Batch of 4 targets.
Target 1
Amino acid sequence: MSDIAKLQIGDKSYELPLIKGTENEVAIDIKSLRGSTNGIITLDPGFKNTGSCESAITFLDGEKGILRYRGYPIEQLAENASFLEVSYALIFGDLPTKEQLDKFHADIKEMSVVDDDVKKILDAFPKSAHPMGILSSLTSALTAFNPSSVNTDSEEQVYKAVVKIMGKFPVLVAYTMRKKLGLPLNYGSTSLGYVDNMLKMMFEKPNEDYSINPVIKNALDKLLILHADHEQNCSTSTVRIAGSSHVGLFASLSTGISALWGPLHGGANQAVLEMLEAIKEDGGDTKKYMAKAKDKSDPFRLMGFGHRVYKNFDPRAKIIKKAADEVLTQLGVEDPILEIAKGLEKEALSDPYFVERKLYPNVDFYSGIIYRAMGIPVEMFTVMFALGRLPGWIAQWKEMRSRKEPIGRPRQIYIGENERPFVTIDKR
Ligand code: CMC
């Protein structure tokens, strides 16, 4: 293939360079387009055909169902690695040595205390507040408690900001859950592993010793790994674009949390469980809900199905489906919702509407069933997604700043009124 694309506009032709990635993905480089064509731009709502950056973090082939972080296949990471190892690889480029991992963990622990005044902010929220709203606000509030800006040219300062947020974020997550459950706040213990401590901070009752169930711990590790990054999705693009204005890491992350909250993105895991519950309450008639999903006059969508990029099975969904079966068996939980989910999946996979549109179960279809078996309240599901996505957002923010990307500022095609004169209010 030539490395030039030719564009013909009227009688003028333009040459645009092609850019090739390490996995042979090809892009037309349009950086010079507007200048050389005297104002012509490209238009692509939802960025379905537009690359916003070059990135060395995550590779995803939606047609083949491939997902790799820093080159490591997701299946191998989910099977063998810990969430902290994966976080390190995403943020710094390679899986850590034992010494690097120990140091990373020790530095995180050192930074994990959250200013006690943050509790006052937490107290001000009504108990009915959605945990994602609380988490986004508390993350943003961290900026006020850590005002010094990070010089992103200094590796040391970036590292400090990374370990700070990796330490404090799980505390904020645990705060939001304990607020929901009316439990006193809990710091856990620095003697525990990163994920073990998260569980202790979330679940320990004030009057009981907390012992970690290895089935729950392993399931959480796996879920967090599967959610850790997914290249330029809605929340990650939001973090990168907010960070491109040179606002700090914590403020950029809080924008990502808000974007993740929506039901078309991370909020789908809560929506899936609510949908499965509704089907159960309605007598388990999956066919009725399949028909609703296909009816274009009905806004209902089969939550947990479809993906912007995967047009084949979401590899994360395969791993999660297997994990859901294992976790429920190991915990001795019989959840009728799992059967409804499997029935719905079976029907959708053989239904022409879903087959033609290449709509497969996504990562969120089965994750809620595992979270529920672990005792996590439904409204906390998207918070758990955010906890997993944290290292991905950090890695993407760090990469964006280190590549000195320009401020994100898309163009538009104006379709409003042409110039018209101002009319005073009495004459309108
Ligand atoms: N149920 C019924 N129809 C659907 C669904 C669905 N879940 N998803 C897509 N479609 C139809 C859609 O109506 C459209 O049909 P038509 O061509 O006749 O107009 C066609 O499939 C293409 O859909 P689209 O909305 O243009 O696709 P998109 O790439 O813009 O949207 C999506 C992707 C994930 C937002 C969408 O599939 C969806 O809303 N799914 C349900 C929500 C969900 O599970 N989100 C979690 C995504 S994975 C976790 C994450 O990374 O956030």
Note: DSSP finds 18 helices and six strands in the chain.
Target 2
Amino acid sequence: MAAEIKPKLGGETKMKTGLIWFNGHTVPQEEAKVSVLTHAMHYGTSVFEGIRAYETPKGPAVFRLSEHVERFFHSAKVMMFEMPFTPEQVSEGILSVIRENGYKSCYIRPLAWMGATSLGVNPLPNNPAEVMVAAWEWGTYLGDEAVRKGAKLITSSWARFPANVMPGKAKVGGNYVNSALARIEAQQAGADEALLLDKEGFVAEGSGENLFFFKGKVLYAIEHSVNLMGITRDSVMAVARDLGYEVREVRATRDQLYMADEMFMVGTAAEVTPVSYLDHRAIGKGTAGEHTLKLRVAYLEAAQGRNPKYDAWLTYVR
Ligand code: PPE
């Protein structure tokens, strides 16, 4: 006799996100449900963003909202999604989720996906896309210890996909199967995060972060090539130049990273996270680097509205 299987309730999750902006309306999380025949669930046909809002002296503010919303619509364009909302409406949805949940600071996840109108690989019968915005309180991405002592990385056996295999500059759900495989491998190996190389063996990016390293006081940013054009990367390069660092964009090899004085990862979720070890080799002193920590402080000052110079990056939630 077959064992009794107790199905989990649809939409059951341990994550508490409060109110969600779901196709234009704010609803409780329990009501923001989709069909099991959702195209995106079968084929990864979704696009998303990761955005942070920070507590500032003038109330909560979203960091680089317009750049994130622009990338969201660009990702949708790559997938030929018809978006049923304008960028202004999605921006307003983002602000309303923060406002209505009463968050002081949070991580925001806009998602657009191909719905359940039809199955079969071609997604376009599912146009227009469906859209939601959720938000939750999220602390450090890789844990406080990784920020204090530096994260331990391993190079993944999974390569970052070439530009003619997947659209790496679009934040497409399906791309993250590659990230998830790398992240699982890192976790199983006892590391905090995975470094992915490109098909030629050059350094690409982390499973969810762009990479930088220091040689002396020169800051090297891993060039875009196949990587996501990170908004944090752009912000950190600007902040570093303002602090007087020389910044160069390079194509680097993994042994070049072993020889670096400092290394760190950046992303909306990861912010600026120092790296202490790569493939069991200490980077510099094997701890969080001094210039890295200086950049982390300056980046957070900008994001948290504590440096008026970067006020144009903030959208206040009113
Ligand atoms: N590369 C990848 C592959 C990536 O996913 C991110 C963001 C970045 C670089 C940095 O991009 P930006 O956030 O614009 O600076 N990763 C998001 C998803 C994290 C997750 O676990 O989910 C993020 O940081 O929000």
Note: The pocket of PPE is lined by residues 50, 179, 205, 208-210, 227-228, 230-233, 267-270 (CB under 6 Å).
Target 3
Amino acid sequence: MSNTHKWWYDAVVYQVYVRSFADGEPVPGDGIGDLPGITARLPHLRDLGVDALWITPFYRSPQKDHGYDVADYEDVDPLFGELADFDALLARAHELGLRVIVDLVPNHTSDQHVWFRAALAAEPGSPERARYLFRDGRGPAGDEPPNNWSSVFGGSAWTRVADGQWYLHLFDSTQPDLDWRNPEVGDMFEGVLRFWLDRGVDGFRVDVAHGLYKEASLRDQVIPEETKGRKKQAESMVERVLRDEPMWEQPEVHDVYRRWRKVLEEYDGDRMAVAEAWTQTAESMAQFIRPDELHQAFNFGWLGTPWSAKDFAAVITSSIAAVATAAAAPTWVLSNHDVVRHPTRYGGGEVGLARGRAATLAMLALPGSAYLYQGEELGLEQVDVPPEARQDPSWFRTGQPGRDGCRVPLPWSGSAPPYGFGGADGTQPWIPQPTDWGGLTVEAQEADPDSTLAFYRRALATRRTVFTGAEEATTAEADGDLLVVRRAGVTVVVNTGDLPVPLPAGEVLISSTAVSDDGMLPPDTAVWLR
Ligand code: GLC
């Protein structure tokens, strides 16, 4: 079977941020979403019309980075339920025709993982320490970090332990990086893959897939004078410039994915993996999806594109060309749990939402697979979370607002927090929800044919009927402020300018906001024409 006929090739995947989706049993009303909460709300995803869900980490974890700090890769954290809850979720999803992708975090463990605890208890130079990157410090007393690398979350990437050695953590100090040059590490993760494949998962989202290997010398990073001191946090990850990065994108990382591909192919049913790889170029992103490596990689170039017809056209064209060299599927994503929600990025308010819907409609016409982030189907915006409620480790390390604002628990029903998110006892969610979300709940939007939810449902249903073949050629060009995409006899037009323009001829299959019959396409609007 060719790739273009596999389920994931043109799948629409919905990202569930587990602690913010829905709070069900067994800990009702603790204000934290969990696996039974997801299971109970799966019909929402079926009605939305997505093909699959990706669930962020729900494994045992001290939750310093909300599950991206894993203490046990083969168990469910009691906050979220237990293994039987995962099995029930998977079975119900499959009954509803939904595939399930789980998150795999191979770059680092939690500092509470049994390996790291053993490493701390052992001597420098011991086999226990050799699973991580422990080094002696620099300077006469060894009290300076072994190199100049910074943590993605701010500050040094090194922390010193009691006996004077330092360990590397590219993220928080509670997330020590593993040493993938140690064969024990690869063997451990093959076991983890098999554990979840045996349980029946359909795929994996690979966290920090461009990490894992560091240049063996652990040499200093060359940092040009003009970029020194620039904060590197979630938002600025999208505007990366080409730089010297001895900690990312090392060639050896591709051997890991060749090994995993073989494991995935031993299993029936088209199991897949998608890389979260913040690569510097579209070409290096394509290396992760060569035929013997992973199946997909997130296309962060699309997410980082400003509201401009010219830039959208350029990114569409270069993304399609880059994946073609790897004979793989393009992917498209506008929002996730690490970045500012896209309506807010496009200016917020009514304009931001209109642009957000237009960009989504353009995305859903593109070939390959699209990833949606929970809450975008409700038109949610980034929330300004009050400092005392912030939990993102990057907030604690840098004093910058961090990523909590895109992680606010979903509003399901009712007119006041917790909007049906949690148990009936009214316990408030782990981040406070805005008090003006009453009109944005699933319940309110289901009753309104012009709502963002109704629009997403229509868009996904129309995509299914219009784009039936995955192999159609796609072209994208900018005509002044208009983005024009052509695929499968459908023309997508997005007006990124400030003025209405004459609507090109053709039947309007769907528009991102209402188009009146005056023959004009308003600003901040997209249409599919045939
Ligand atoms: C990825 C995740 C992010 C997490 C980081 C460290 O970028 O998407 O949420 O903080 O990896 O695991």
Note: Residues 231-240 have pLDDT under 50 and may be disordered.
Target 4
Amino acid sequence: MSDAITLPAPHVRLGSSSGQPVTRRDGHLKVTGAATYAADNHPAGMLYAVIAVSTIARGRVTSLDVEAAKAHPGVVEVITPANRPPLSLDPDEKVGLFGFRIDALQNDRVRYARQPIALVVAETLEAATEGARLLSPTYEVEPARVTFEDGEAYDPPAVGVGAPPNFAKGDIAAGHAAATHRVDTTYETPAQYHNAMEPHAMVAEWNGDHLTIDTPNQAIVMSRALFAGYFGIPPENVLLRSPFLGGGFGSKAIMNGPYILAILAARMMQRPVKMVLPRDQMFGPVGHRGATQQHLRLGMDAEGHLTALEHNAVATTSTFDDFIEPAANASHNLYASPAISTRHGGVRVDIGTPGPMRAPGEASGSAALECAIDEAALACGIDPLEFRLRNYSETDPASGKPFSAKALRECYAEGAKAFGWAGRPLSPRQMKDVQGRLVGWGMGSAMFPCPMFPATARATLRSDGTALVETAGADMGQGAWTALAQIAADGLGLDVERIEFRSGTSDLPDGGVAGGSGHTASAGTALHNAGTDAIARLAEIATADRKSPLFGAGNAGVEARDGRLYHRGDETRSESYADILARSGNASVEGNGTGARDPKDAEERAMFSHGAVFAEVKVDPDLGQVMVTRLVGAFAAGRIINPKLARSQLYGGMIWGVSFALHEEAVHDRRSGRIMNADLAGYHIPVHADIPDMQALLIHEDDPYVNVLGVKGVGEIGVTGTVGAIANAIWHATGVRVRRFPITLDKLILDPGMPA
Ligand code: MOS
């Protein structure tokens, strides 16, 4: 059985191959409401599950009024630690590639506010919601610890997804001693929550020991195995469908307790169960970006060359798991310095476990680093762009390896030109607009690594001249439905309109993880290789067939384009795929491909996307209100498959940068440990009025090493560089250096350096 989702041909005919700005193939489905998201599924006989969450941050649940909840009309079951059936995996075990401990009602402990403490299952959403309210929990309360000061400091064994916590190159003490200019500065970033527009959702249906789940997921085949593991069934017994995601940002790549509870309820009740997290429950059991305190010490010689770059980061994590934001690692690969030292510390607090969130590490780390670099340029009396050029690294500063490609110099030049950076005064508070607002210009460097995840794909050329291409990829809005189809079309020598692209379900070849900005590179390479494999098989058939004009040409001697194979030496000799297949008696020919990188290149080269972001802000001198009025980014990310979608990704990242710099912050009540702004009214993100005219320039870059396509990634790099650019522009406008994000007006007007 396959319930794979197939997208129709694009509605607007455009160029068919990589490099063309093909319009989103799923756009029409989305704007007309025809795209089916997880929660849009309503299997017959479905029940609704609502999670009751803890209102305390630390302690024990001492009672739940299960009777009252069960007595409510429509409520069919209440699941608590007392009656929760066993799982095949311990929720407190770390399992899988991105192993996370989860909360699945394993006991009565409360480890953070909004932790699941019970699940109510009912015939209607209203009944389930009311049942959850009637549980009226009582607690044994222990004091909550939610701040750096209150939490328990420890040395993390690893940061991010398994990276070493500390790094040193050169003699950092000697570097500091040799400096003629010094910067010693500390930046703080708050806890941030993913807040995808589509909340986490699960529709689960059991059929014997087979499970079908509709749930938004960034790592479909990997997650299928994890889900199967918790329920003790083989992965093949799980069909996970995730054709569309309303955003993921990392939170939908990892396992969480609510999902497991919804599936468990469906098994207990032997009926389908739907669970959709309300917005406030997005602030607890499904991950976030941990808070950081980052101490940077930079030393420079008289000419403004770095002699020492020291970056020490402390990040919060939960009391029961070890994800630490790898913020200091942002200082490894960007600026040349004879001595680099980075360290990470952890602080355990009574907050849900953080996890990967859009540019994990790089976002927070580059915010602090780019501000510190701005401070360093000022200390040396050098323009911030010139300072970055003086410290440009021709090889990877951390490893000494050559870069696979690095067009950052071009990004600086093109970005500065488009912005009009030349002539920027060095000192702050030099520019005003006609309304008397203070005007400032700032910049930041952007950088992001180019990971690839194991991926596979299948391509089937059909006798009607079309092709079916398949990979279990995930499109969380980034455009995989379109860009991957473009890559597949090129691999097969077909117009994209002739490509039927199946994706988004776990019964297809494993398309890897849509994360780390590596999905296009990983699944794309697999699709490309599957296509060329299918063409090679077709060429074998044609060149061995005496009746074909290609007879005897040999595999290497044909070229695939426009649905035909051409003799390389003689263009007049060609034949259509359909004709080759028809005469051979084959209905189709199939190819398979994987998306791995050449291990030699991976070993020998440092691989990153780069960029430069320039920002203009205007600040009201009396009210401290900040408007970002211009934002220009220039990015070099290898081969661009679809410039329209790539720009859209970069805009999204830069908007996230505005959000990080000026808006986002989870505010914890220090006494209760609860997040007080767990909704989109109080947890601020930018709206249209906050976003200026933006430019994202795509800088040409040929990367012969990163993968056969030369594709890097554009998903996350936009947020890096942008935060620093805006913060630096605010300093340039006001003379006030705010070192605690987000930069809100109170921090500006209360600063003694901000005279009206
Ligand atoms: Mo992401 S944090 O790579 O989805």
Note: The pocket of dioxothiomolybdenum(VI) ion is lined by residues 218, 248-250, 253, 356-358, 360, 515-516 (CB under 6 Å).
